[in-house]
Design a protein that fits this description.
Its main location: membrane. The protein has about 180 residues and is mostly beta strands. Helix content is about 10%, strand content about 45%. It folds into 2 domains: about 5-75, Class II Histocompatibility Antigen, M Beta Chain, Chain B, domain 1 (Roll); about 85-175, Immunoglobulin-like. Strands 5, 6, 9, 10 and 11 form a 5-stranded antiparallel beta sheet that branches.
């Protein structure tokens, strides 16, 4: 088994991220603006406050940002920037039955850097109601994965799409259901 704590900092939003994962399943995410750990699942117990205090994590984040700025200055023009091409898949949480509530899941893999937005569309029209997202979760291959969920009641002829957009690149990946 592998327990990993991954801190990242980057010029793109989110500028800071910290995730605690067990065997690639995210357990906690540190919310830097609120200075608190948030569990990935509501049934997880709260983070023990004495393990890593927000003040300690903010020092780590400050160091990360200083290191990123220094390495960026050294590497710009010397090394190509690494970027993964996101891969998206859409599937229902339960076997679909027309007219019965369900949840569509959009799995987005190979995210690097972790700076993408995920949106939903029904027949090409943006949908925001009933949408929830996870934070970026680190994977063993040094990329990230994210889930997005859409509460639906499928009807005949419905075409749903999950649109993954990389900020700044003006590029999108689309998966249909």
């Amino acid at each position: 088994h592998t327990l990993s704590e991954v801190l990242f900092c980057q010029p793109d939003a989110p500028a800071l991220g910290l995730a605690l994962a067990f065997d690639s399943d995210q357990l906690f995410w540190f919310d830097f603006p609120m200075s608190r750990w948030t569990p990935r699942l509501p049934e997880l117990p709260p983070w023990p406050p004495a393990l890593e205090t927000p003040a300690q994590l903010l020092q780590d984040a400050s160091f990360c940002q200083q290191l990123r700025r220094g390495l960026t200055a050294l590497a710009t023009g010397q090394m190509p920037e690494s970027r993964g091409v996101p891969v998206a898949a859409v599937f229902p949480r339960e076997p679909p039955v027309l007219g019965e509530p369900n949840t569509l899941v959009c799995l987005v893999e190979n995210i690097f850097p972790p700076a993408v937005s995920v949106g939903w569309r029904l027949h090409g029209v943006p949908v925001t109601r009933g949408v929830t997202h996870t934070h970026d979760t680190p994977t063993p291959d040094l990329a990230f994965v994210r889930f997005s969920y859409l509460a639906v009641t499928p009807a005949a002829g419905d075409v749903y799409s999950c649109v993954v957009t990389r900020e700044g690149d003006n590029s999108s990946v689309v998966a249909y259901w």
